[in-house]
User: Which sequence fits this backbone?
């Protein structure tokens, strides 16, 4: 084992992870003039150049829309998400067989270990939290209070929204604060009808999804080499046009422009090195996943952006005299309070009419129905908090033939014509923080690099299960109220916590070091030069998609960290 | 497609890992000039392959647009049977083919063939209503539709293929328009 210690291993800041928040941390810190090292555990993926399947025609993927047995076996966890690792995405989804984890209780852990991480494949739905989202824990006595409020984050939302580019419709709703928007994508004809019916019959709001796709790029987007969304709807493969935001298309190129960023790949962080004398973190120790070479890198500050689970795992594995149970873990809250969003529950229907309506272009977006449960005068009888819906209308294509009887010439001709419209949406529900929903490091079992394996011990609780039932019932009720036909609800029983791919909460923010891991500026309470700004930081989950909030927290923390360095407080 | 090109092609799609079966499947494609000309396959035997080739063409026949044979749907089905289906489903499929062979399916008139398949579909629909078990007809039909409507021949002849639409626009559907494939 060779540990290199030389000048080139010293930086002002180390950012662990190159995904959604690591990208923003790298951009912000390097733009302020700091020398930044970004450490990515996965392989290098170059923007555009390495999006090998992005422009493949359907027939150029050998198995088309079928999952191979090999992928099912190797990507056993990733494929729990709608058989995600098919020919088009397989090479981007982590090989779970080579990177196994332990399920004391089942946890659906979806991973993408490569440059940009899951920001390459995300759903791109981007919503601000509302004021109540930050206050609800305190008001309702759930978990602990957030140390910040909406007003603390509002300017940072605006800041990242401008950079990222969020398309959406201004609505002036308290429940879903507006962002700095690019023009909205259009609703189709049945969706406009549905929107009006929902307001008329049930007083429920519907808006077009707020999404990180460039409907009308601004000059600063173009200057990074990004261009307008082309409505191919193949975002998850990586966009050759930079039409949607990812760390690869946005933050990393911006950071690279400064000349202050160094990025290394195939580098798994084993631990953060704590210096007893200064009572600060002095650097990190990594193992190269290809060569098994061990290296150390040093910096004044460290940003943890490895994704909620890996960030917590690194903290837990960073033991020292001062922190025998893991860096910053005085409260024993590291790895606890795992939250996610409910997924896999909703309803579908078919629509009579609108047969002369059609759409050119494949919209990579849907409708959004903001939370109505337990807001205003609404009180759900058997659960707390609420959920939003995402979905919309589309015309059926040839695949409807699978459910039809018949074959031959007429059958074939019929399938080349558009079918009726169908309408479907599913819920994203808020999960409450529960210290018994946790992950920890196995005391004995290690991965092939000698790092302790992650064990998950989390599940939905009664509040979640009651909410799921309500999500399905309300979805059906709304589709029926709209006058749609063949309304069918679904509540997939095989779904576990994690499948929402919004994992968060494992190093939560709070005022009290006894019950939280980081303070209101994302610093570890007891090791102030380490910042946790990915999903791990979250004190509660809201029901809206979280990446925008993570990015805003990251930009805010980077600003604070830079000022701290300047004032020699860090 | 030359063998070396085929390998290069699949490497670029799959990154590092190429399964033996995928590779050999593509090698088989490289020697396959047109569907139904022999046994290019390693899952289905010659007889089974020829039967599947005929069955796909009955489901999606050549009309004013090409049929399943021209789109090499049987080769696609053979590939996904090899790479994507477990032993249990493979057996369900080949058992179903065997049943048709027992009827000497290929020797019958097209009217009689249609009747046999309609019966098969009727039974399939009953199975589907009482359990979630797959059956040969359901697999065959689903794979034929997928294989055809995702093939270059099928997409380009039946649909308006627009890999880069560049716009999102609500329009009125008019007779003579083609559905757009992306």
Assistant:
């Amino acid at each position: 084992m060779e540990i290199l210690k030389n000048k080139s291993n010293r930086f002002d800041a180390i950012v662990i992870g190159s995904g959604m928040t690591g990208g923003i941390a790298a951009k912000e810190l390097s733009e302020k003039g700091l020398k930044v090292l970004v450490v990515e555990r996965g392989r290098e993926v170059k923007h555009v150049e390495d999006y090998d399947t992005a422009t493949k025609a359907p027939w150029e993927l050998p198995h088309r829309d079928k999952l191979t047995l090999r992928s099912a076996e190797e990507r056993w966890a990733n494929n729990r998400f709608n058989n995600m690792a098919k020919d088009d995405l397989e090479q981007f989804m982590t090989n779970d067989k080579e990177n196994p984890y332990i399920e004391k209780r089942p946890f659906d852990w979806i991973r993408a270990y490569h440059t940009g991480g899951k920001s390459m494949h995300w759903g791109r739905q981007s919503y601000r939290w509302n004021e109540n989202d930050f206050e609800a824990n305190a008001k309702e006595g759930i978990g602990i209070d957030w140390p910040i409020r909406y007003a603390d984050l509002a300017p940072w939302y605006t800041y990242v929204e401008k950079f990222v580019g969020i398309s959406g419709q201004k609505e002036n709703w308290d429940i879903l604060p507006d962002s700095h928007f690019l023009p909205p994508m259009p609703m189709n004809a049945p969706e406009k009808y549905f929107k009006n019916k929902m307001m008329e019959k049930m007083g429920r709001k519907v808006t077009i999804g707020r999404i990180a796709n460039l409907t009308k790029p601004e000059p600063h987007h173009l200057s990074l080499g990004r261009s307008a969304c082309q409505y191919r709807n193949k975002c998850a493969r990586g966009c050759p046009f930079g039409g949607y935001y990812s760390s690869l298309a946005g933050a990393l190129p911006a950071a690279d422009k400064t000349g202050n960023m160094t990025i290394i790949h195939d580098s798994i962080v084993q631990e953060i090195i704590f210096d007893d004398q200064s009572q600060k973190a002095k650097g990190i120790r990594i193992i190269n996943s290809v060569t098994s070479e061990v290296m150390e890198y040093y910096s004044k500050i460290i940003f943890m952006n490895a994704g909620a689970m890996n960030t917590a795992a690194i903290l837990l594995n960073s033991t020292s005299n001062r922190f025998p149970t893991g860096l910053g873990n005085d409260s024993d809250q590291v790895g606890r309070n795992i939250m996610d969003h409910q997924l896999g529950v909703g309803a579908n229907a078919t629509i009579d009419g609108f047969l002369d309506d059609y759409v050119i272009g494949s919209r990579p977006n849907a409708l959004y129905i903001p939370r109505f449960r337990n807001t205003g005068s609404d009180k759900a009888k058997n659960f707390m908090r609420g959920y939003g819906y995402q979905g919309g209308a589309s015309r059926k294509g040839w695949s409807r033939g699978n459910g039809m009887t018949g074959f031959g010439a007429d059958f074939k001709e019929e399938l080349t014509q558009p079918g009726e419209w169908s309408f479907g949406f599913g819920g994203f529900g808020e999960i409450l923080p529960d210290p018994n929903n946790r992950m920890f490091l196995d005391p004995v079992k290690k991965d092939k690099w000698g790092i302790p394996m992650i064990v998950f011990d989390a599940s939905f609780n009664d509040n979640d299960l009651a909410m799921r039932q309500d999500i399905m019932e309300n979805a059906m009720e709304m589709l029926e109220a709209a006058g749609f036909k063949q309304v069918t609800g679904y509540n997939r029983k095989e779904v576990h916590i994690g499948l929402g791919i919004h994992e968060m909460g494992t190093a939560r923010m709070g005022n009290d070091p006894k019950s939280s891991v980081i303070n209101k500026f994302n610093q570890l309470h007891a090791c102030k030069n380490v910042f946790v700004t990915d999903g791990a930081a979250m004190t509660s989950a809201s029901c809206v998609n979280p990446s925008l909030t993570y990015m805003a927290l990251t930009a805010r923390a980077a600003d604070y960290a830079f000022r701290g360095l300047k004032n020699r407080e860090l | 497609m030359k063998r070396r090109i085929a390998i290069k092609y699949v490497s670029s799609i799959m990154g590092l890992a190429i399964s033996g079966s995928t590779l050999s499947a593509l090698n088989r494609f490289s020697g396959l000039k047109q569907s139904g000309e022999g046994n290019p396959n390693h899952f289905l035997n010659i007889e089974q392959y020829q039967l599947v080739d005929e069955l796909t063409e009955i489901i999606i026949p050549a009309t004013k647009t090409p049929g399943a044979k021209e789109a090499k749907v049987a080769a696609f089905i053979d590939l996904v049977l090899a790479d994507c289906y477990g032993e249990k489903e493979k057996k369900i499929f080949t058992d179903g083919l065997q049943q048709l062979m027992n009827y000497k399916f290929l020797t019958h008139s097209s009217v009689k063939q249609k009747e046999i398949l309609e019966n098969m579909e009727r039974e399939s629909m009953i199975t589907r209503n009482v359990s979630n078990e797959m059956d040969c007809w359901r697999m065959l039909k689903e794979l034929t539709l997928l294989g055809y409507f995702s093939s270059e021949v099928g997409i380009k002849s039946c649909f308006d293929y627009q890999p880069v639409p560049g716009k999102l626009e609500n329009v009125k559907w008019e007779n003579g328009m083609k559905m757009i494939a992306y």
Q: What stands out?
A: The CA atoms of residues 48 and 97 of chain B lie 7 Å apart.
